[in-house]
């Protein structure tokens, strides 16, 4: 029996007779002139090309920016995030009884010979005092013992912190603040993680982990938030509301006899930084100032970015962020942008100078730069900035650090107001003992500005459904096509011929 076939012309005639598309019905029901045929062909091709270029532009936009950051639909209370960590560093680095910097400066100026102990102290001060390294040329000394000497010379914690209040309740300062090693030497941090929660103890030098602390284990993580069983007094501390009474107040003080201007220049008081509890502050670059006999009030607004787990399927270079378990840091347990930058600078410095600055994260076996190598590790910062700028202009990655922002992060925007703190006039009016005349205190007050914050979400620019809807919208707008039209094309191209063949076979 010969096989019956259906010609394409016959299919086209049936399609014209039964099609639901208006344009095809219009073309099928009237006889067109040659000019009209050309016009209709141009119109159809222009519509198809417009659809194609619109879909291509959408695809390129998705390739370049597959992730966007949008605001969450509702506010969250400030009790769901930790209170900011505050690191405060006295500008005066030593007690006058331990090391009289003014006296040593006069001896160096008069070309007097320093004894071995004062020479070692002066070498250590050169690392934390920008001007003292210009006083003389230091020779190489591999046994400088910088951190140990800083400990011996630093101001006693009990003399620096006089009054502390948390949530409007007076609390011993040693329960709130812990000692910390940063760019400015020995500083004090409120709301800081335990060393074993911040550093990898098997990699980190003991110079960063041998500080005594009364802090308790953390019940909060950067990606998971607070434990469900964590109470209101869980660590890291969190405020239950906005304002000063729900925040922190402390009063550091400085003895007048200890204040000098040879170390930090024409400044008095303290430097401080605001950061997250698991982050090491960059007090050398990002800091505020608190002068003695001044009162500073900080109103903090958190900036919280959250990322859904569904974005883990995208590679980090496309979503432009790292989850905590995606980017391994050698020295830190928690991935943050500044922790990554500090580790990268430490590695870059070691490769350039064969040593690192005393405050840079390091292993026990990595050599600490002595006073003769200060210019070397200071030059590293300038070299890295120049490298970032040149790579940015050339369209390359800024550095080899691969330090992207964390996918889940908290940052604190600070509004600061400062007024004079007339302590001595108040002490005289109250008839306080004469011992208060010998100190110059300051006051810092920190609180949240609002009771709620609006978090931001990092999400996909377009999901599969969004892409189908957007591209389908182009075709519907410019061509008038729909899923029904596509189904008709498939039906008349694939299914209809088979049905006709079976019909002819039954007739035979």
Describe this protein's structure.
This protein is of the alpha+beta class and 508 residues long. It has 15 helices and 18 strands. The strands form 4 sheets. Strands 1, 4, 5, 10, 13, 14, 15, 16 and 18 form a 9-stranded mixed beta sheet that branches. It has a 5-stranded antiparallel beta sheet with strand order 6-7-3-11-12. A hairpin with a 2-residue loop joins strand 4 and strand 5 (169-170). It is elongated and about 110 Å long.
Low-confidence runs of at least 5 consecutive residues: 18-22
SS field, number of helical segments: 15
Structural class: alpha+beta
* Rg calculated over all Cα atoms: 35 Å
Q: In one word, what is the shape? A: elongated
Total beta strand runs: 18
Strand composition percent = 15-25%
Q: What portion of residues is helical?
A: 25-40%
What is the mean pLDDT? 83
**Main sheet: strands, sense, barrel:** 9 strands, mixed
How widely separated are the two ends? 9 Å
């Amino acid at each position: 029996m010969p096989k019956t076939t259906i010609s394409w012309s016959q299919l086209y005639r049936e399609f014209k007779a039964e099609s639901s598309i208006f344009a095809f019905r219009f073309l099928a029901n009237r006889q067109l002139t040659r000019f009209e045929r050309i016009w209709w062909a141009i119109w159809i091709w222009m519509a198809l090309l417009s659809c194609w270029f619109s879909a291509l532009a959408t695809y390129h936009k998705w390739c370049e920016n597959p992730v966007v950051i949008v605001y969450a639909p509702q506010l969250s209370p400030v009790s769901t995030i930790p209170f900011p960590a505050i690191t405060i560093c006295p500008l005066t680095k030593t007690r006058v009884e331990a090391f009289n910097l003014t006296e040593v400066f006069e001896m160096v100026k008069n070309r007097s010979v320093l004894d071995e102990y004062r020479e070692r102290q002066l070498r250590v001060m050169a690392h934390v005092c920008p001007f003292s390294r210009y006083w003389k040329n230091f020779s190489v000394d591999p046994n400088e013992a910088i951190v140990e000497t800083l400990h011996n010379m630093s101001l006693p914690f009990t003399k620096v912190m006089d009054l502390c209040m948390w949530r409007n309740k007076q609390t011993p300062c040693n329960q709130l603040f812990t000692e910390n090693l940063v760019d400015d030497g020995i500083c004090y941090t409120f709301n800081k993680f335990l060393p074993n929660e911040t550093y990898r103890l098997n990699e980190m030098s003991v110079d960063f982990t041998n500080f005594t602390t009364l802090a308790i284990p953390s019940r909060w993580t950067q990606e998971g938030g607070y434990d469900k069983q964590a109470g209101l007094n869980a660590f890291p501390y969190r405020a239950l509301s906005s304002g000063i009474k729900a925040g922190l107040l402390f009063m550091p003080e400085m003895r007048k006899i200890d204040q000098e201007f040879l170390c930090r220049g024409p400044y008095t008081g303290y430097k401080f930084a605001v950061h997250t509890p698991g982050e090491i502050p960059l007090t050398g670059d990002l800091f505020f100032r608190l002068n003695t006999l001044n009162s500073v009030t900080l109103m903090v607004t958190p900036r919280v970015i959250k990322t859904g787990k569904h974005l883990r399927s995208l590679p980090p270079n496309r979503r432009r962020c790292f989850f905590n378990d995606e980017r391994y840091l050698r020295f830190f347990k928690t991935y943050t942008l500044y922790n990554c930058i500090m580790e990268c600078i430490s590695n870059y410095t070691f490769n350039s100078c064969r040593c690192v600055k005393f405050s840079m994260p390091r292993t026990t076996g990595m050599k600490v730069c002595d006073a003769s190598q200060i210019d070397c590790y200071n030059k590293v910062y300038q070299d890295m900035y120049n490298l970032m700028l040149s790579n940015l202009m050339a369209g390359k990655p800024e550095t080899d650090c691969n330090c992207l922002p964390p996918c889940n992060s908290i940052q604190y925007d600070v509004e600061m107001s400062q007024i004079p703190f007339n302590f001595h006039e108040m002490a005289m009016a109250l008839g306080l003992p004469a011992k208060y005349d010998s100190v110059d205190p300051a006051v810092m007050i920190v609180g949240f500005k609002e009771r709620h914050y609006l978090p931001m979400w990092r999400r996909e620019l377009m999901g599969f459904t969004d892409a189908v809807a957007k591209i389908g919208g182009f075709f519907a707008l410019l061509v008038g096509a729909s899923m029904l039209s596509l189904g008709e094309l498939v039906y008349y191209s694939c299914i209809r011929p088979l049905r006709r063949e079976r019909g002819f076979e039954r007739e035979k």
